[in-house]
């Protein structure tokens, strides 16, 4: 009987210790979350670079440099200055992160309107945008009116 009582007392003590460890871990987690939120607020989203995979390296890419983003399954290809790099994200997810300089031009493309060099109508009602780096993006009829209005046409 004494052994059972001793075992019960030890079990209650261990449970109390583990409960206190869990409370301490939750408090530390809350502090870390608050610090992370504060750090994110200190860095404006527009100036935070995207990490782009170029070959076997990951390089930071500023949104100011990007001419267009195109879809490639669950990846996005970033086009800038005649170069390309991959981002492990869907185009829809990336569209929610970019600012007003960018506009959806096609179900598989987002274009930086500040980097459009020329716009040319095509026979099927869509348009072809030529960007300053030479890359061309087709604007589908679905997005045509919104893109052309933002370009002032």
In total, how many beta strands?
Answer: 10
Q: Based on helices, strands and strand pairing, what is the structural class?
A: alpha+beta
Secondary structure: helix percent? 25-40%
Main β sheet profile: 5 strands, antiparallel
Instruction: Note poorly predicted spans.
Output: none
Radius of gyration (CA) equals 26 Å
Features:
153 residues; alpha+beta; OB fold (Dihydrolipoamide Acetyltransferase, E2P); 2 domains; 33% strand
What does this structure look like?
By secondary structure, the chain is α+β, with helices and mostly antiparallel strands. Helix content is 39%, strand content 33%. It has 3 helices and 10 strands; from the N terminus they run αβββββαβββββα. The chain has a 5-stranded antiparallel beta sheet. A 3-stranded antiparallel beta sheet has the order 8-9-10. The relative contact order is 0.10. The model has no long low-confidence stretch (mean pLDDT 87).
Structure described in brief:
The protein is of the alpha+beta class. The protein contains 3 helices and 10 strands; from the N terminus they run H-E-E-E-E-E-H-E-E-E-E-E-H.
């Amino acid at each position: 009987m004494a052994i059972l009582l001793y075992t019960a007392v030890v079990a209650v003590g261990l449970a109390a210790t583990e409960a206190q460890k869990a409370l301490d871990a939750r408090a530390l987690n809350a502090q870390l979350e608050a610090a992370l939120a504060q750090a994110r607020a200190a860095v404006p989203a527009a100036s935070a670079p995207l990490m782009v995979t170029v070959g076997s390296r990951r390089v930071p890419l500023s949104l100011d440099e990007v001419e267009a983003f195109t879809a490639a399954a669950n990846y996005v290809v970033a086009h800038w200055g005649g170069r390309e790099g991959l981002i492990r994200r869907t185009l829809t997810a990336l569209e929610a992160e970019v600012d007003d300089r960018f506009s959806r031009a096609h179900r598989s493309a987002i274009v930086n309107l500040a980097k459009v060099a020329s716009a040319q109508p095509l026979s099927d009602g869509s348009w072809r945008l030529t960007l300053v780096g030479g890359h061309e993006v087709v604007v589908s009829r679905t997005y045509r009116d919104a893109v052309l209005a933002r370009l002032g046409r």
